[in-house]
Amino acid sequence: MREKNTEQLFAELKEDADVKAFLARNKDELLPPVSEYLRGLLQEKGLRLSEIIKASHLNRNYAYHILSGEKPHPSRGKLLALALAMKLNLDETQHLLLCGGHSTLYPRSPWDSVIISAVEQGKSVSDTNLLLEQLGEKEMLG
């Protein structure tokens, strides 16, 4: 459970010369690893991993490696494919991207706008890729 807001963390970090101590002291305030966040969402939403992997169009072994933590930094496209497969809302999707060390979706970017719309409309990975292709944008996993 987070107790400090971002401004408090910034202030503390600016004053602390020892980043290692800062990280240790604020472990519970930091973003969780992608694998941990995804496993929590799967459990919270009662989703079946095999169905999510199939719907995401990811390689089965690669998807398992993401969820086990063996692939701690999957690409933005792979995380978005998982988000669509899991029917995450926009806030959950944005948080997933941050956990993965990626930028959040930005509506001024045409590609990101398509993904935002797909998330909001609950589109599948296939339908989203088709829409991206129709609009002259690159596919999510392409």
Could you walk me through the main structural features you see in this protein, from its secondary elements to its overall organization?
Helices cover 62% and strands 0% of the residues. By secondary structure, it is mainly alpha-helical. It has one domain (19-134): 434 Repressor (Amino-terminal Domain), CATH 1.10.260. Helix 4 packs across helix 6. The longest helix is centred in the N-terminal third of the chain and has 12 residues, at 34-45. It is globular, with a radius of gyration of 17 Å. It starts with 5 loop residues before the first helix and ends in an 8-residue tail after the last helix.
Question: Layout of SSEs?
Answer:
Elements lengths: L5 H10 L3 H7 L8 H12 L3 H8 L3 H9 L7 H10 L4 H10 L10 H12 L3 H10 L8
Helix pairs in contact: 4-6, 6-7, 8-9
